[in-house]
Every structure is written in structure tokens, then in C-alpha cells.
């Protein structure tokens, strides 16, 4: 496996590979790999000749009071894991090489980002859409794999690719969980013992909500209120950021469940802001 730090060098390599007729798969990440990231790499590996994974803690998707400074980072550890999972090129640029001092061009996807994480993290999706566009330009992928854990992010990228006619296939991959049901996240390392015991209740509550829908409760206010009460009891160390039920593609809030729906939640537990979702 090769590690490339320089963006222009990556772009040059990618253009050469494409000119040779090779297909490229891309898995964008912020690193500190867990099984969720690795499953995306395994998926992309099957879909392309050359697998590129990017590791970049993108500053523009963090708000001023968020965890950018503390975000876990270990290039050697991640390089070893990436290499075991068939990555051909690990792209690990420096911040100043990705953003020029007078960077001022942004990609925004307003319709899908006014609620859920976009509401709590106002600059987040502008940063995500912009960095993913840059990564697409640099790595020239035919296919890019993203996790369904970040469902809104996946919806934003699919919309952006459609609206801008970016020639890449965007693939969503199911959430990978710990045995307890907790969605894997690089941020789980922030959890203290007692917090870690309560965090799996996020998933338990979502499963309970799905059961309620199967039992014919379709009023979204009732479903959300029941989940809110469950979290208040079962996650006393948590603060609910949001509980929403939305259309899975256009991320608009639903009043009643009459077709496909996504329940998405964000709960702050200690210093970890954890998100999860379920299709119902
Ligand atoms: P991150 O490094 O957290 O920005 O995540 C990089 C990619 O991995 C994103 O597409 C995430 O949606 C995906 N991802 C993160 N955690 C998981 C998980 N538990 N299961 C599946 N995909 C995940």
C-alpha cells in the first residue's frame, strides 16, 4: 500500500490510472478506523480495480465549539488496518495542502440540511459537501462508498452528485455495530465506563420505535414522544439533541408514517455526540 500526502500527486496518479482504463473506488474517512470504516473498504474493494481511502480530519465540517482539536488520529495504526483491507492508496493530506489560505469556494445543499445534524451543526454539511467534492476531483473515483450511519450525509452527497452531474456512483453501506448494538464510531473512544453502558440504549430505543410502527402506531409526534421518554429513563447521562422522523431521500419531516420513513437521532453522552437511525 502506498501513502500519498500531496493532493496534486494523488490527482496525477488517479488520472493516469483512469487513462490506463482502471476503475477507482474511494472511501472518504476522518480516520481512527473501526470495523465500520473497514467494511466500507471491503465493499469498495469488490467494486473497483484500485481502492483509495482518504484520511483527513476536515476542519471545515467542525463548528467552533466542536471536537476538532481532540479528534482521535493515528496514521500508523490506520495505515496498517487499511493495508490489511486491500487499500492500494491511502491519501492522508495536511490541512494546509487541502485548503489554501484564501479558500472561498463552497458546495451547499440547502434543502436537505436545514434539519437533523444540519440544524445543530450549521456549517457541517457545507464542509462535508465541499471536501467530498474536492476528494472526487482528486481521486477521480468511479464509485464511492459511504456509511448509512451518517444517513443525512449520504442523502446530501447523492443529491449533490445528481445536481452537479458528478460522474461517480454513490453506494450506501449498512451500519456496523458493536455486539451491544451501539453503532461503531471513532467518537466512542470518548465514552467513560458508565456512559458506554448507557449508549447502546440509543439503538434499543430505535428498535422499540420500529416495533411500535409494526404495532400500527403511525403518528410521528407520539412515536417521537415515546422515544424521548425512553431515552430520558434509560440514558440519564445523555442529552437528546434531536429525534426526528423524516422521508429517507429528501429528509423532510413526516407527520404520519404511510410509506418509507427514517427515524434519526442524536444524543450527547459525556463528550461524545452520537448519532444513529433506523428505517421503518
Ligand atoms: P468518519 O470517519 O466518521 O467521517 O466516517 C467515514 C465513513 O465511514 C462515513 O461514510 C461514515 O458514514 C462511515 N461510517 C462511520 N461509522 C460507521 C459504521 N458504524 N457503520 C458503517 N459505516 C460507518
Largest sheet: 6 strands, parallel
Q: Helix proportion of residues, in percent?
A: 25-40%
The hetero compounds bound to this protein are: adenosine monophosphate
Low-confidence stretches: none
Which short descriptors sum up this protein?
280 residues; Rossmann fold; Pantoate--beta-alanine Ligase, Chain: A,domain 2; 2 domains; six-stranded parallel sheet; 39% helix; binds adenosine monophosphate
Give a structural overview.
- The protein is of the alpha/beta class and 280 residues long.
- It folds into two domains: 2-173, 3-Layer(aba) Sandwich (Rossmann fold); 186-279, 2-Layer Sandwich (Pantoate--beta-alanine Ligase, Chain: A,domain 2).
- It contains ten helices and nine strands.
- A six-stranded parallel beta sheet has the order 1-4-3-2-5-6, sandwiched between helices. Strands 7-8-9 form a three-stranded antiparallel beta sheet, with helices on one face.
- It is globular.
- Bound molecules: adenosine monophosphate (AMP).
SSE layout and pairing:
Layout: E1 2-4, H1 7-19, E2 24-29, H2 35-47, E3 50-55, H3 75-84, E4 89-91, H4 95-98, H5 117-120, H6 124-139, E5 143-147, H7 151-163, E6 169-173, H8 193-198, H9 201-214, H10 220-234, E7 238-246, E8 262-269, E9 272-279
Parallel strand pairs: 1-4, 2-3, 2-5, 3-4, 5-6
Antiparallel strand pairs: 7-8, 8-9
Helix pairs in contact: 6-7, 9-10
The chain binds adenosine monophosphate.
Write a short abstract of this structure.
This protein is an alpha/beta fold and 280 residues long. 39% of the residues lie in helices and 19% in strands.
Amino acid at each position: 500500500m502506498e501513502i500519498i500526502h500531496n493532493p496534486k500527486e494523488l490527482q496525477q496518479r488517479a488520472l493516469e490510472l483512469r487513462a490506463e482504463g482502471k476503475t477507482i473506488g474511494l472511501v472518504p474517512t476522518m480516520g481512527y478506523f473501526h470495523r465500520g470504516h473497514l467494511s466500507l473498504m471491503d465493499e469498495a474493494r469488490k467494486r473497483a480495480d484500485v481502492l483509495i481511502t482518504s484520511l483527513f480530519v476536515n476542519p471545515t465540517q467542525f463548528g467552533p465549539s466542536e471536537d476538532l482539536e481532540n479528534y482521535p488520529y493515528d496514521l500508523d495504526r490506520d495505515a496498517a488496518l487499511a493495508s490489511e483491507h486491500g487499500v492500494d492508496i491511502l491519501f492522508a493530506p495536511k490541512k494546509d495542502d487541502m485548503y489554501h489560505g484564501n479558500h472561498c469556494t463552497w458546495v451547499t445543499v440547502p434543502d436537505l440540511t436545514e434539519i437533523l445534524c444540519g440544524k445543530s451543526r450549521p456549517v457541517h454539511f457545507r464542509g462535508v459537501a465541499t471536501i467530498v467534492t474536492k476528494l472526487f476531483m482528486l481521486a477521480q473515483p468511479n464509485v464511492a462508498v459511504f456509511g448509512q450511519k451518517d444517513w443525512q450525509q449520504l442523502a446530501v452527497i447523492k443529491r449533490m452528485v445528481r445536481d452537479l452531474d458528478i460522474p461517480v456512483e454513490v453506494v450506501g453501506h449498512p451500519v456496523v455495530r458493536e455486539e451491544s448494538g451501539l453503532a461503531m464510531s471513532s467518537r466512542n473512544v470518548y465514552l467513560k465506563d458508565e456512559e458506554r453502558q448507557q449508549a447502546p440504549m440509543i439503538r434499543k430505543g430505535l428498535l422499540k420505535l420500529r416495533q411500535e410502527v409494526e404495532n400500527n402506531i403511525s403518528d410521528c409526534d407520539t412515536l417521537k414522544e415515546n422515544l424521548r421518554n425512553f431515552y430520558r429513563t434509560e440514558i440519564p447521562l445523555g442529552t437528546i439533541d434531536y429525534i426526528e422522523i423524516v422521508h429517507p431521500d429528501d429528509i423532510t419531516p413526516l407527520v404520519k408514517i404511510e410509506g418509507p420513513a427514517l427515524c434519526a437521532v442524536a444524543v450527547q453522552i459525556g463528550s461524545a455526540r452520537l448519532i444513529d437511525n433506523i428505517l421503518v
